[in-house]
Design goal:
Layout lengths: L21 H29 L1 E8 L2 E12 L7 E18 L6 E4 L3 E8 L5 E3 L4 E4 L4 E4 L3 E3 L3 E9 L12 E3 L5 H4 L2 E4 L8 E6 L2 H23 L10 E13 L6 E2 L1 E15 L1 H13 L6 E6 L4 E8 L4 E14 L16 H9 L4 E9 L13 E5 L2
Parallel strand pairs: 1-21, 2-3
Antiparallel strand pairs: 1-20, 2-19, 3-16, 4-13, 5-10, 5-12, 6-9, 7-8, 7-11, 8-10, 11-12, 13-15, 14-16, 17-19, 18-19
């Protein structure tokens, strides 16, 4: 018999869970605490980075004004001067004025108008006063004064119908000159570009009002013509400020007040003085002075369009002028004012911030908006506070 081996039973050893040591438990708690503190710090940093307050201020606006004297000179060199031009010109005008139909009696008169005499020959052609002109319709006219028409040239003069009435009111046409030889009539002739007028006149007593209206018309014409001449060579885009003074030297009419007439001639001689200056430069200078008039806590928000530039005197011989400039505008509280210093509001509640700001007479209304919206106090960092002045 083979002897049997004795089987031995192996026992599995079980390792029991031993409790952590005291030092390990301490380290575990410290780690957890560190994580919690780090998370809280992260939240605090995030809060600081996104928290902000926007404070909108509606100011009490104040009207400010200033008046300054300036000189216009050919070349500005000092403060209070502006470059410009002073020019002067004499103008003489005369014209015929028709009396109005209202209240007048109609009567026949000789129609007339301006004609151009043309000479296509190589010799001057002299024409005496009352030289006849015959229209293509056979209506006879006569020139008012003697004229010498140069060789291969032209001359203009007034001509009137030989007979009164509407028959003389012919349109633009060509005239031959019956007093010249037939061969010359083809080369020396007259033309008109406008209709002859005045076949019927409305006669009434000349009044002082008629005369004054005529003078006013001549003065306006003289002014307009002179301004064009005086502004010649001046860059009016730069020297856009303009002043014109018209001094009447002489004026007269060829009829007396109360005389019966359908028309009369008025004459006038005037002296026109023109002043041209750089208006933009004047406004910039006056605006800078206006800014200096606002209070310490104010800034100039806008300049009014209602400025006034008054010409006090003009010296044409010295080419200088004196101006008075009035300018006004609106001033509001400055964002640099100590009243709007953000440091005064750090950590304040909405009510406290509003109370601090509303004590100033420079402020009308205040609104405060927080980010995030649930905040109740102004941030404690100045760069997280935005103050806006709404105007």
């Amino acid at each position: 018999m083979v002897p049997q081996k004795k089987r031995t039973k192996k026992r599995k050893s079980k390792v029991a869970n031993k409790p952590l040591s005291r030092s390990l438990r301490v380290y575990q708690r410290i780690s957890i605490l560190f994580v919690v503190i780090s998370f809280l710090l992260l939240l605090f940093v995030l809060y600081l980075s996104i928290s902000s307050a926007t404070i909108r201020v509606t100011p009490n606006a104040q009207v400010v004004s200033h008046e300054v004297s300036m000189e216009v000179v050919p070349e500005a060199r000092t403060s209070g001067q502006v470059s410009g031009y002073v020019r002067q010109q004499n103008v003489e005008l005369s014209d015929t004025f028709e009396l109005p139909e209202e209240g007048a009696a109609a009567s026949e008169a000789k129609a007339g108008g301006l004609v151009t005499l043309i000479n296509e020959t190589g010799s001057d052609q002299a024409l005496v006063a009352t030289t006849r002109l015959l229209s293509q319709d056979g209506v006879l006219f006569r020139i008012d004064e003697a004229v010498n028409v140069p060789a291969y040239g032209e001359a203009t003069t007034m001509a009137h119908a030989d007979e009164p009435g509407l028959g003389g009111e012919v349109g633009a046409t060509q005239f031959r000159i019956p007093g010249l030889s037939v061969s010359v009539q083809e080369l020396v002739y007259a033309v008109s570009v406008d209709t002859m007028t005045g076949g019927i006149q409305y006669v009434q007593a000349l009044s002082e009002a008629h005369i004054q209206d005529a003078y006013a018309s001549l003065e306006t014409r003289a002014r307009d013509e002179a301004v064009l001449a005086l502004a010649s060579g001046i860059n009016t885009d730069v020297f856009d400020g303009a002043y014109v003074d018209v001094e009447i030297l002489t004026q007269s009419v060829d009829a007396e007040v109360g005389s019966e007439s359908g028309s009369f001639e008025a004459s006038m001689s005037v002296q026109v003085t023109g002043l041209f200056y750089d208006e933009e430069t004047i406004l910039q200078y006056a605006s800078a002075l206006l800014q200096g008039q606002v209070g310490e806590d104010y800034e100039l928000a806008e300049v009014s369009d209602g400025y006034v530039i008054e010409v006090r005197s003009v010296d044409a011989s010295a080419e200088q002028a004196s101006l008075r400039v009035y300018i006004d505008g609106t001033a509001i509280i400055s964002t640099a004012s100590d009243i709007l210093d953000a440091e005064r509001l750090l950590g304040r509640t909405t009510g406290e911030a509003e109370t601090i700001l509303e004590t100033s007479e420079l402020i009308d209304e205040i609104s405060i908006r927080f980010t995030p919206f649930w905040l109740q106090r102004i941030p404690t960092l100045e760069d997280h506070i935005k103050i806006i002045v709404d105007y």
